[in-house]
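This protein record is not my work; I was only asked to verify it. Would you go through it and say whether the fold makes sense for this chain? Here is the record exactly as it was handed to me.
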Amino acid sequence: MDQGRNMDIEKESTTTFDYSKRAQWLRAAVLGANDGLVSTASLMMGVGAVKHDVKAMILSGFAGMVAGACSMAIGEFVSVYSQYDIEVAQMERESGEVEKEKLPSPLQAAAASALAFSVGAIVPLLAAAFVKEYRVRIIAVVTAVTVALVGFGWLGAALGKAPAVRSSARVLFGGWLAMAVTFGLTKLIGLYGL
């Protein structure tokens, strides 16, 4: 009898899980990784458009990774701390008591955001790090970033139980567009503007 009841509870819990509850941390993790991937790859492609030197490309990517991770962490810390303050004030108004376990952690959010950004940013850095020849390096970066973009799009869709093809395509085309615009405009300015 108990076994039948347990199976009913398991069935109910799997069918009624609210995937929108995952939205906040999922959004932060996937967007953080995607931001790191796209911004670092775009920066490296932009520098690569005017400077074929591997060292310049890697250094610009590394600087972009560090600056982006710091920026994401600080932004997330400030945002979550604001949410923390609002929730504390609300708890004090409602019950006069603050339930610490229900509050978000600004430091945890900042660390997670910086880590997610860095995970994405490391992909184009590793793709370019060991390739001396310029054209092969550009192809290696675009290929690695393409695979990662599709992967991040699929992961976000899978975790949120959303359509994977549409999500992956949206992430992929957005990333390609960012890299192409950055490469093209930097090449144009490098040829005619400087």
Notes: The mean pLDDT is 86. The first helix runs from residue 2 to 15. The chain has one domain: 22-192.
